[in-house]
């Protein structure tokens, strides 16, 4: 009787251990299967995209079962090439690029599905300190602008015209300097004014090489400045993936909305190891105050029309494109309702 009890106990113990191990392996397999790889190509690395880095840092993507690979592909052309060629699944870039691709007769158009920023992200920096700035002061000066055809340059020209300045007649407009070298050119003595993104503008100011005097974002109004987009065919095949992706972005947007600049700067710090925390806080605060970070992923028709108006004013709109043709708001609307 005792021998039978020992054998039974041993058998039960072994069976229990086997079941436990099997359950552990099943759970591990489930976790592995749930993580779906999604490759993002971002047009540049910028604090302007803080909600994206918050989604990564806070694990919002992973909570939705997504394993994100983030690659910086400098310039709208390179970013769109990576997307169209299959080198990326999702692109974070200006919405104007989707219009350029569509106008070229693309059979598989690029669709904007989640807006990240809703204003221009550049600032006007003056070489000299100006206590009472007015846009008229740019007349007759040399102005270092951004790349022709890109959103920063188009917004820059739109704002100048808004203040009665013809960018091609009333000042010397330089726009043939590579994006990465614009700040260096200004710091080396080129131009009296320059249009810069953050944190470069704040760094220039901290180093005493220039002074931020105006915001192009405040002047131009709401516009789909930076949006997540993907090829239409890829979105149709992966509807669930894009719902998860958009949900993670929306969580991050709400987190940024309800947290301080200091908390946001701390969260995204791993993505900017060479940037001073104080500078980061200043930059985030500046963007929050002017409403640059979209609080939800919906790219509405009014913003889309404002974008095309800015492109038209700059002479860069190849053709008028209806909002519904290149923008999908159904995913974002569904996520917000839930």
From TrEMBL:
The keyword Signal applies. Residues 50-260 form the SsuA/THI5-like domain. Pfam families: NMT1. Belongs to the bacterial solute-binding protein SsuA/TauA family. PANTHER family: ALIPHATIC SULFONATES-BINDING PROTEIN-RELATED, TAURINE-BINDING PERIPLASMIC PROTEIN. Keywords: Signal. It comes from Neobacillus rhizosphaerae. Coiled coil: none annotated. The keyword Lyase does not apply. Gene3D superfamilies: Periplasmic binding protein-like II. SUPFAM superfamilies: Periplasmic binding protein-like II. It comes from the Bacteria. It is found in: Periplasm. Residues 1-22 form the signal peptide. The lineage of its organism: Bacteria, Bacillati, Bacillota, Bacilli, Bacillales. Transmembrane segments: none annotated. This is SsuA/THI5-like domain-containing protein.
């Amino acid at each position: 009787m005792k021998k039978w009890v020992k054998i039974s106990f041993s058998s039960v113990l072994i069976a229990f251990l086997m079941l436990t191990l099997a359950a552990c392996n099943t759970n591990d397999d489930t976790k592995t299967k749930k993580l779906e790889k999604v490759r993002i190509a971002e047009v540049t690395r910028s604090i302007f995209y803080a909600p994206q880095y918050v989604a990564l840092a806070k694990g919002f993507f992973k909570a939705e079962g997504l394993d994100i690979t983030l690659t910086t592909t400098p310039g709208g052309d390179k970013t769109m090439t990576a997307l169209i060629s299959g080198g990326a699944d999702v692109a974070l870039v200006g919405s104007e690029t989707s219009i350029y691709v569509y106008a070229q007769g693309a059979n598989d158009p690029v669709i904007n599905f989640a807006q990240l920023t809703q204003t221009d992200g550049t600032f006007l920096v003056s070489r000299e300190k100006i206590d009472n700035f007015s846009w008229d002061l740019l007349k007759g000066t040399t102005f270092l602008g951004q790349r022709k055809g890109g959103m920063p340059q188009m917004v820059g020209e739109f704002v100048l015209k808004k203040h009665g300045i013809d960018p091609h007649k009333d000042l010397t407009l330089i726009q043939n300097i590579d994006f990465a070298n614009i700040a260096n050119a200004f710091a080396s003595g080129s131009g009296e004014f320059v249009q810069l993104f953050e944190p470069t503008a704040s760094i220039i100011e901290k180093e005493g090489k220039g002074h931020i005097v105006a915001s192009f974002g405040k002047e131009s109004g709401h516009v789909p400045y930076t949006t997540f987009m993907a090829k239409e065919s890829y979105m149709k095949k992966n509807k669930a993936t894009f719902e998860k992706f958009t949900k993670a972005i929306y969580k991050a947007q709400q987190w940024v909305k309800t947290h301080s600049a200091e908390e946001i700067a701390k969260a995204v710090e791993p993505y900017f190891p060479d940037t001073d925390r104080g500078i980061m806080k200043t930059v985030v605060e500046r963007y929050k105050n002017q409403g640059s970070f979209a609080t939800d992923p919906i790219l509405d028709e009014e913003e889309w029309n404002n974008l095309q108006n800015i492109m038209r004013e700059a002479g860069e709109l190849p053709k008028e494109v209806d909002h519904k043709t290149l923008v999908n708001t159904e995913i974002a609307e569904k996520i917000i309702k839930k």
